[in-house]
From TrEMBL, chain A:
This is Substrate-binding domain-containing protein. The keyword Signal applies. Keywords: Signal. Residues 1-22 form the signal peptide. The keyword Signal applies. It comes from the Bacteria. Residues 29-249 form the PBP domain.
Automatic annotation (TrEMBL), chain B:
SUPFAM superfamilies: MetI-like. NCBIfam families: ABC_perm1 (NF038017). Keywords: Membrane, Transmembrane, Transmembrane helix. This is ABC transporter permease. It is a multi-pass membrane protein. It comes from Halomonas gemina. Residues 26-222 form the ABC transmembrane type-1 domain. The chain crosses the membrane at residues 22-54, 61-85, 97-118, 201-222. CDD domains: TM_PBP2.
Length: 272, 234
């Protein structure tokens, strides 16, 4: 019994030391980013060359943009890569971020059942497409999770002069992939970033029905966290990551990333 | 359902392929959940036994509370641990958030009430049988705790397995406090959530089958040890 007890203690301590050993030695930063970048596989393509060059590992916590901001506000992430330009600027104004730069763009697309009951495929603009969905009252699956995509979707409804609500408008409160799973299950329309859609495998009857409107432009920005509220963060390492993303090498890595033969993110850092 | 054979094939391929990423994920799942169960047991077994032996005012409320906590939603436990370990939280300076250590802590909170509550019940029943004998021998209540725990050990193994089941199956807590970081805090359940999000349902289900197999293995090992011990005793 005594021996068993000692073994238990030993194993228990090993468990606790997991946390400690993960903290020691290795050079890494924690990056709060979005589910779209993670689910598409972008990070698997761009982090290894950065780590190879600098020896800095990047640990990605992929959440909705709203939650990413909250994680950074609390001092739990060294850097941010998100897609809500207004929110990003507010984050800087509030004093949590010291620098923000455009990194890349992709675009949002409207997904829906192959039969296109609301007839959005031939719409002139995304506002027209959304109005058609609202008029037809066909089910629409919204993220409803305060993510960058959700915020963009709400702005587009506003532009269309529609206040979405009622039984056809279903706020799911989940990530992009789960939202597409649900939309596939109930044959609903949904707005997705192109990256998640292209990488998504469980389409069932869903098809890409509307794309190409400039209003669907989706800008990703990299943010450095301000030193002031959180001096404990790895500001130096995070700055190296930020600079690398904007560098020729980082931009080329983003440019080269493809899923199923399709480029998903277009680098657009402005050299200054 | 065309996905079914696919998922089993995927599971088989995953196991036979011995993918290093998968092995890492499996190892971390086991490490985190087993550590959580063992740490929780170290606290909960004596705690449950003590609760079975002592009578004090408000004891009924403690027992009810402990039983209720068996139903603590993992996401709530995760959120509480997140707020504790976050840099802005009281234990932030240890930098434990988004590490396996944080995941162990969250799972300890989930498992502890289960082991404590069920231990309390088992030891209480056992104590009812032995009370007079132990009293006549003049064994103090403190000394009765190890005796009773040892006597109840076979039943308590099942209790610990229930705790392990809870820990290895939950996703809400480890997702929040671990962050599902590739190669660092990704475990079986969070990997399943990620693959489901990608719409890669056969792989997600395949991982689920691997997880189920893993839990079955742990249970089988415990069963084997228990049977061997029982035979020796019997």
């Amino acid at each position: 019994m005594k021996n068993a007890g000692l073994t238990l203690v030993a194993i228990g301590l090993t468990g606790l030391s997991l946390g400690v050993s993960a903290q020691e030695g290795d050079r890494y930063i924690t990056l709060a980013s979005t589910t779209s970048t993670e689910a598409s596989g972008l990070f698997d393509a761009i982090i290894p060359p950065f780590t190879a060059k600098t020896g800095i590992a990047v640990r990605v916590v992929a959440v909705g943009t709203g939650q990413a901001f909250e994680i950074a506000r609390r001092g739990d992430a060294d850097s941010l890569l998100v897609h809500d330009t207004d929110g990003e600027k507010r984050f800087i104004e509030e004093g949590y971020g010291s620098e923000r730069a455009d990194v890349m763009v992709n675009d949002f697309v409207l997904i829906g059942p192959g039969g296109d009951p609301a007839g959005i495929a031939n719409a002139e603009s995304v506002t027209e497409a959304l109005s058609l969905i609202a008029e037809a009252q066909t089910p629409f699956a919204s993220r409803g999770d305060d993510s960058g995509t959700h915020r963009a979707e709400q702005r587009l409804w506003e532009n269309a002069g529609v206040e979405p609500g009622g039984e056809w408008y279903r706020e799911l409160g989940s990530g992009m992939g789960p939202t597409l799973n649900t939309a596939a299950g109930m044959n609903a329309y949904a707005m997705s970033d192109r990256a998640t859609w292209v990488a998504f495998d469980n389409r069932q009857d869903l098809e890409l029905l509307f794309e190409g409107d400039e209003a669907l432009f989706n800008q990703y920005g990299s943010i450095l966290i301000a030193e002031e509220p959180h001096p404990h963060l790895k500001h130096d390492l995070a700055a190296q990551w930020h600079q690398w993303l904007l560098s020729e090498e980082g931009q080329a890595a983003i440019d080269d990333f493809e899923v199923k033969g399709q480029q998903l993110f277009f680098p657009n850092a402005h050299p200054d | 359902m065309p996905d079914e054979p696919n998922a089993f094939q995927t599971a088989l391929a995953l196991i036979l392929g011995r993918d290093p990423d998968l092995i890492g994920i499996v190892a971390l799942s086991l490490q985190v959940s087993l550590s959580a169960v063992l740490i929780a047991a170290l606290i909960a077994l004596p705690l449950g036994a003590a609760l079975a032996l002592w009578r004090f005012p408000g004891r009924g409320a403690v027992v009810v509370m402990l039983n209720a906590l068996m139903g603590l939603p993992p996401v709530v436990a995760g959120l509480a641990v997140y707020l504790l370990l976050s840099r802005a939280g009281p234990l932030g300076e240890f930098g434990l958030l988004f590490t396996p250590g944080a995941m162990v802590i969250a799972q300890v909170i989930l498992v502890l009430p289960i082991i404590a509550a069920l231990t309390r019940q088992q030891v209480e029943e056992l104590h009812d049988d032995y009370r007079e004998q132990l009293a006549s021998l003049g064994v103090s209540r403190l000394r009765r705790i190890p005796t009773l725990l040892w006597d109840a050990r076979f039943g308590l193994t099942t209790v610990m397995l229930a705790g392990f089941g809870r820990a290895s199956a939950e996703v809400g807590a480890v997702m929040i406090v671990g962050g599902n970081i590739d190669g660092v805090t990704r475990v079986m359940t969070t990997a399943i959530v990620l693959e489901t999000g990608k719409g890669n349902l056969p792989l997600a289900l395949g991982l689920g089958i691997v997880l189920l197999g893993l839990v079955a293995l742990v249970n089988a090992a415990a069963h084997l040890v228990g049977e061997t011990a029982r035979r020796r005793v019997g």
